[in-house]
Amino acid sequence: MVLTENGIVQAANKSEYDRNSEIKAFDDTKAGVKGLMEAGLKKIPRMFIHEQYILEKKSISDRSDELSIPVIDLEWLNKDASARIEIIDKVKEACEEWGFFQIVNHGVPISLMDKVLDDARKFHELEIEVKKKYYSRDIKKKVIYNSNFDLYQASTANWRDTLSLIMAPHPPQPQELPQVCRETMMEYSKEVKKLGTIIFELLSIALGLNPNHLKDMDCAKGLFVTANYYPACPEPDLTLGISSHTDIAFLSLLLQDQIGGLQILHKNQWVDVPFSPGALIVNIGDLMEASLITNAKFKSVYHRVLANIVGPRISVGFFFRMHIQENSNSRLYGPIKELLSKENPPIYREATGEEIVACRYKKGFDGVPLLSHFKLNKSPLE
Length: 382
What we know:
It contains 10 helices and 16 strands. By secondary structure, it is of the alpha+beta class. Helix 4 (about 80-95) crosses helix 7 (about 180-205) and helix 5 (about 110-125) crosses helix 7 (about 180-205).
């Protein structure tokens, strides 16, 4: 084995490759992927190489560039009854057909959105000695900085570093949050909570339920935040910023910068979700998907983030879901009874929020659909 100047263990030849040693050496630096780039890395370590992604890129001959996710304007939501009905219809169609949509004129100040991205960048660009005090793999902590939450579970590491925050229902004390992004994250979380409540109301109506149905099920109670930093990558065709996955949430609201890079899988095609000034990206998560609540009426779809050579790319995701330590007395979640019938029997078993979240942390992004672990009447191959 060879310890490089970057602090990464690499094999002298392929037969000697020791992935576990390479991962541990990387983790021990607490410098993340950004630390690799600051060390002058020219080629990415083997632990980051996505063989499946490389094969997929070579096999795709015709990926449509004409598809785009729906964009929904919320400006007339409370001003015109017919416009409100039209918006609800668009939300319903987007959730059933895409699982993703963008919203504009949503009420969150663009200046605040810009500051969230800027402060997230500032955190990740702090001196490593400052960031190290937040570095941890204890998923029960409310403030965590690390690289790849599933570093030791996944077959391949992703090219990103992340600051994770639990902002509801029991957020950290203000002094526990990094000073560089403290005020902004607190203010933006309040705005996202308000917006999320509105979206859950629209989703409830779209499902033919009482407007407060999803809110009363505590879907808007928990809020988990990830501020992601994707450094420029010297070999972006060999790795991914985030590998293909679905979100463990009822609902996710994503803010991405002008670099873009997000793709969603729609009808077996990867579709780009480009940066759109002032827009927020909304997607259905596993807990909602059809997931355990709508019984597969709304779709939690696969998505990924490409690595890039220009970086850094910044994104901030807000996930409406409870976290591990918030779920000690968690309720059971299962398909809404009002949506079931003889023709539409339950697809998923009931499970607690803690069980579902814990499953994601245990399995990581392993390529296996998270919901398959909760499916009823699974086939022998599942």
